[in-house]
Structure formats: structure tokens, C-alpha cells
Amino acid sequence: DPKIIQKPKYLVAVTGSEKILICEQYLGHNAMYWYRQSAKKPLEFMFSYSYQKLMDNQTASSRFQPQSSKKNHLDLQITALKPDDSATYFCASSQPGLEDTQYFGPGTRLLVL
Amino acid sequence: QQQVRQSPQSLTVWEGETAILNCSYEDSTFNYFPWYQQFPGEGPALLISIRSVSDKKEDGRFTIFFNKREKKLSLHITDSQPGDSATYFCAASASNNRIFFGDGTQLVVKP
Q1: Which of B46, B98, B104 sits opposite A103 (nearest CB)?
Q2: Cα distance from A88 to chain B (closest Cα, Å)?
Q3: What angle do CA A93, A98, A102 make, to 5 degrees?
Q4: What count of other Cβ atoms lies within 10 Å of the Cβ of residue B26?
Q5: Buried b (16+ CB within 10 A) or exposed e, B64-91
Q6: pLDDT tens, B67-83?
Q7: For residue A5, which of B34, B99, B40, B43 has the smallest C-alpha distance?
Q8: What are B12's strand-pairing partners?
Q9: Mutation site, A43, A57, A95, interface B, largest B CB count within 10 A
Q10: Pairing between strand A44-50 and A31-37?
Q11: Which of B42, B46, B101 sits opposite A106 (nearest CB)?
């Protein structure tokens, strides 16, 4: 059974719209993260949450907003979508005390037209 | 400035050979270096990792060699198998929650 679930697997959106990427982890971890992987750049750290609180934000744009409704959930809301937002978005998690040992989900591949 | 660099960009070896993937980094505060393996359409999977207090870490056919003075490390895959064909990412962290990734090395193992 998959331990980190990301939904949907593929997502097509129009410029200017809003989408929510879902992430749930069943590893019992308390820290969760979002990364982005695009054709132009290596895997980039975006956000980290610990115990449902924002710990680090490396995303310049406020159009990207993480949402944590439960300890094992960290969704990513993206507003006013742009074609440059097209990328694969990965959710990851880690256990307390081992924040640098992160496990990744399968990703959501977003295409903005 | 990219924090982690990898070479070569792509590598082809024959089955049974040893593949050597190289990595270098900039930030001397980095003290944890995981390698991730990624297959097409999947997320990166943690393969093996090393902390800066060690100079070698072995796990089966996978070995990391680490040179702190030169800020370099390498991943050796011995007895390469076609199933090892994937993209390998070197990454680095400074004991916080942020991991920096290299651009990856695409490995092809020919049978």
C-alpha cells in the first residue's frame, strides 16, 4: 500500500484558475514538505510544516498556499495559475528528529495552458 | 548559485560494470547527503545516504565515497543491472528541513 498518497496524478488547468493538490501520508510522520520539479530546474524545496505549523517557506509567490487540516495532510493551493507553474509537485514527509531523511510521494503533474 | 552539482548528466554502462556518479557541493555547512533514485513517472526514492562524519557508506551494491575537504562525493553502483536504469539525484542538507538537489544523472544499464 502506498504510504504517501498524492491526488490527482495528473492535472490540467487554464491560466488564471485555482487548483488544490492533495497530499496524505501514512508513515506516522509529523513533518511534511512540498517540492517542485520542472524541466528547467532541479527539485526545489517549497515549504516545510511540522506538527501542522509552517516552518520554512522558500516560495516567493503568495499564490502558493499550503493547507494542513490534519497532522498527516498537507495540501497545496495554487491560485491565479500561470503556464510557468507547470511542473510536477512532490509531497514528502519525515519523522521527528530526522527531518533531513525525507520520503517522497509519487507526485502530481500539473500542466497550465 | 546552484548548491549541488552532479556529473555526468548521463551515463551508459554495460550490465555487470560499475557505474560512478559524481557530486560536489558549495555550502560547507551541509552535513547530510542522501542519494535518491527516480524512475519515470514516480517520485524520488531514498536510496542511500551518508553523514559528513563518515567517508564511506555501503549498502549492498551501492557505495557512497565522501571527501569533506574537497566537498565531493560519489555513488558507486557495482554489478550494474538493467533495473538500475533511472535518474539518480545527489542531495545535501544542513540538518534542517530543507534539502538541496542536484540536476541528476540519468543512468542507462545495457544488457
Answers
A1: B46
A2: 9
A3: 30
A4: 13
A5: bbbeeeebebbbbbeebeeebbbbbbbb
A6: 999 999 999 999 999 99
A7: B43
A8: B108
A9: A43
A10: antiparallel
A11: B42
The string of pLDDT tens digits covering residues B5-50 is 999 999 999 999 999 999 999 999 999 999 999 999 899 999 999 9
User: Contact, B23 vs B9, CB < 8 A?
Assistant: no
Residue B1 is predicted with a pLDDT of: 67
Q: Which distant-in-sequence residues (6+ apart) come within 8 Å of B11 by Cβ?
A: B19, B21, B105, B106, B107, B108
Q: Which residues of A touch B (CB under 8 A)?
A: 4, 31, 33, 42-45, 48, 50, 55-56, 58, 90, 94, 99-107
Q: Pick the more confident residue, A51 or A4.
A: A4
